[in-house]
Amino acid sequence: MKHFNYREGELFCEGVPARSLAEKYGTPLYVYSRNSFLDAYRDICRAFAKASPLVAFSVKSCSNLAILNILREAGAGFDIVSGGELHRVVKVGADPRKVVFSGVGKSDPEILQALDQDILMFNVESEAELDNLQAMSAGMGTVAPVALRLNPDVDAHTHAKTTTGKKENKFGIDFSVASRIIRNIAEQPNIRLLGLDVHLGSPIYSTLPYRQALAKLTDFIKEHRSPRAHLEYLNIGGGYGLLYRDQAVPSFQEYADAIIPFIGKTGCKLILEPGRSLSGNGAVLLSRVLYTKNNGTRHFTIVDAGMSDLVRPAMYDAYHFCWPTQYARTPPAELFGSPEAKDYLNRETGEDWEAPPSGAVDAEGFRLTDVVGPICESSDCFTRGRRLPVLERGDLISFFSAGAYGFSMSSNYNSRPRPAEVLVNGGESREIRKRETLPELTAGEAWQ
Ligand SMILES: *Cc1c(COP(=O)(O)O)cnc(C)c1O
User: Fold this and answer.
1) Could you tell me which residues are beta bridge partners of residue 100?
2) What is the pLDDT of residue 335?
3) 149 lines ligand 1 (CB under 6 A)
4) pTM of the full structure
5) Is the shortest distance between the CB of 64 and ligand 1 below 6 Å?
6) Residue 283 and residue 3 in contact, taking contact as beta carbons nearer than 8 Å
7) How many Å lie between the centroid of ligand 1 and the Cα of residue 210?
8) pLDDT tens for residues 357-405?
9) What is the pLDDT of residue 163?
10) How far is the CA of 199 from the centre of ligand 1 (A)?
11) Which domains does the chain have, with CATH numbers?
12) Cα within 13 Å of Cα(122), Cβ side
């Protein structure tokens, strides 16, 4: 996370100290780095330059209008999965010809909205959806541009809740069904079949699933191309890995080297749908320590952010590196993703290391603690037995790599107003979403 680093013991986002943002905007607080998004977007464009792809940012990973606008200005298109996301990208002035619409359950109003906007294409996920789209576009006297989302039955080796390309997942169309659809495509005169689409899951820390899926897709394209089925686009989806901890993450170049040869073989135009890999390391979640306690067997650090603000640990058992925003000794910028990190992280899990009793402060000033939120759920826990510098009431802590599926998955559970979002550009900060207020929390409810 190049744009989040420690200087003289203090965490900075670009040129602004995190502490000053917490004081100005309160906590919990999402802090985004504009240049982090731009760097990631330019990296993926550079890596795939030979194929000049449409890079359609996955809006669901991070959907604030200001973030979408940064990427639009840089040239990105968008992968949307709802009418709400279409509303967002239209609002920031996205070119509809760079918008693709995925999802297994597009409702009629959402389909109308997208036909109205004249988006680039629908990624259709079932025969029933295609039939509905045919009927609706016939009703409007228009033709719907479509890619068929295939289910390649490839194991992406990722969390069970985020794998999408296996037969047992709800996503995509079986190859035999897709064959039949294409053979009978003349019966769907209001459908223009533009290509094929897959999305394998997320995050995928290897290029192998992409190569496996592309091998199947390129064969399928060769067998099924016809004047009524040009299949000129191949959309390989998202899922590119992100460094959260100490994983070996393929670079965009490595993904590109695996993907581009297949594109060459088919002569297709390439579409990519990166989400996490562009947004994940673009933000931290700042939180303040409320209390600490020791129940005899475990030590707890209770912070003011909870699973309503960042649900990934509770939902996906996800790891987020966390560290005090002020720390005079070894800064985590060096621990995180460096050779030293492995040693440190091993000790976090206790594998190569005799852990002291929970709550005891060791010779280096660390203690094992569970960092937990205020929500009334045992799953509201960011870390279990994590080795952290001693934290006290009032200290600030930062959860790193919180840009993807962070705020966008936040909720009002426990009737908690959602946190504010702040965007940093160089030495400037700007609130891009106000903290929700209590009246906003109940607006729209009728109690009498
Ligand atoms: C969520 C999603 C993506 C983005 O996945 P990342 O892992 O964030 O890159 C891309 N395409 C589709 C269809 C998705 O549902």
Assistant:
1) 79, 121
2) 55
3) no
4) 0.95
5) no
6) no
7) 14
8) 667 888 878 888 999 999 999 899 999 888 889 999 999 999 999 999 9
9) 75
10) 7
11) 4-31+280-435 (2.40.37.10), 34-279 (3.20.20.10)
12) 34
